[in-house]
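Example 278, ligand guanine.
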Amino acid sequence: MNIINGKKIAQDLKADIANRVAKLDRKPGLAVILVGDDPASSVYVRNKDNACKEVGFYSEKINKPANITQNELLAEIKRLNNDDKIDGILVQLPLPKHLDTNQVIETISPKKDVDGFHSENIGKLMQNKPHFRPCTPKGVMTILATIGINLVGKNCVVVGASNIVGRPMAIELLNAQATVTICNSKTQNLATKLQQADVIVVAIGVAKMIQGTWIKKGAVVIDVGMNPLDNALVGDVDFDAAKKVAKWITPVPGGVGPMTIATLLENTLMAYHLRKEK
Ligand code: GUN
């Protein structure tokens, strides 16, 4: 069993980005918008802002009250679309219920959509002509490449079908020529499906849901879950049981989380170069 050190892979990626940024004549700029004060979202946004500073980016952390109107939020995004210092725009999700998330995402310029959530970028990923790729699935692909997993013909099971992780993750694996099964909270006989899997990616948001006995010996287990439990953070996989059967497994914390942030920086640097070229 090998525990995947996502923090180290992310640090190496950030060091590479910092070296490249040091040679640029303008700092790549990222704007991160947080609506309301959800504690988990506040931590994620702070981590993203700190990561920008670490690699020498310009960053704007924009806090808006939970009762902001749809039009006020769209106006802020349009302002950032036209701000030359800003290469990437990220609106932290989930948004308060009264806001139309889809319209918010579609208002971000596809050229600054470093989350890769705009329909234009998701469409390109679906067509296997990727442009901006969602950060968590792309970060998982970097992890799999770094540990030397060849995905061609492998049985991959994705547990979770969200727009942020599960769906784009399944398409990433398909684009890498894996055979992909997508499960969701209603899937029957999940254990049987997982027992066939060479690679498992779990993003379902239920603490320790995936049991060790559901995992094939020698499988790669990627846990995207981040669930508060007894004053700690745990993943969607029962780590202590799973690590006994898996060949490779990500811990929580210190696995996928740091890679999401490093990949956001990677996408922002890409947005900078593409904007400069035009
Ligand atoms: N909420 C959870 N993950 C993400 C992410 O990758 N991007 C944004 N914008 N919100 C999130």
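Summary: The chain has two domains: 26-109, 135-257.
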